[in-house]
Every structure is written in structure tokens, then in C-alpha cells.
Amino acid sequence: MIHLGDITKIHGDQIEPVDCITFGSPCQDLSMAGLRAGLEGKNSGLFTEAIRVIVEMRVATNGMYPAFAIWENVPGAFSSNGGEDFRTVLEKLAHAAQPDVSIPRPAGGAMVQGRSNHRKRLVSGMAVAQR
Fold first, then answer.
1. What are phi and psi of 32, to 5 degrees?
2. Which of 5, 35, 60, 79 has its CA 20 to 30 A from that of 110?
3. GO molecular function terms here (predicted)?
């Protein structure tokens, strides 16, 4: 595994293409213990920087690399902004692979119906390139 440093200074079209990019973004804005500012918060907003790097690499390699992208964060990402932040994560990962795809907003669910599900979860997303 290679760590390249500050994500805001990395450009996906200027680094060696890789099969998989794994990343996390600061959790303070998504965590149940935090202020719940969501992806628009000053900390968790770094998620968009990682997406930028992925898209830059995909453009530079004609969509070949990376084949996979995996995002890690806290379970609070599922409920941040009523679940909209997690939908945004999925949509941005999907757009990195196929720009015209969309992730529908759920019509309802446990949180909307007043029944939250308190099981711990692993949060990850994946974009797959066609080769």
C-alpha cells in the first residue's frame, strides 16, 4: 500500500494508475457523536477530494483504472442528513464509473418510519471499470 500524502495535493492523472483506491474521510461530520454537518461539513467534505482523484485517474486511463474504489467511515454515515449523505456517497462512486447513473432516493425506511436499526455496519462503496 502506498500513501501519497495530502489528498488535496494529489492529482489522479499525475500518479501511477492502480487497480484499487481505498480511502476514508474524516468522520466528525457524519458520526452520531459529532455535530452531524454531513458531507458538507468542513471535515467530511474531503470525501469529494478522493472522488476527484478517482475521476481524474479514470479520465487519464480511458476508464480503465481504478477498477475499484472502497470508502470507509462510521455507521453514522447511513443516517447523516436523513440518509441523503450515504446516497450521495453511492452516487458519486457510481458516477466515477458511469457518469449518467443515478441512485434513487428511498421512498421510506426504518429511519423514516421511526424504527432505527442499531446494528453496527461496515460502510464501503465500489466503482467497477469494464475492461
1. -65, -25
2. 35
3. methyltransferase activity
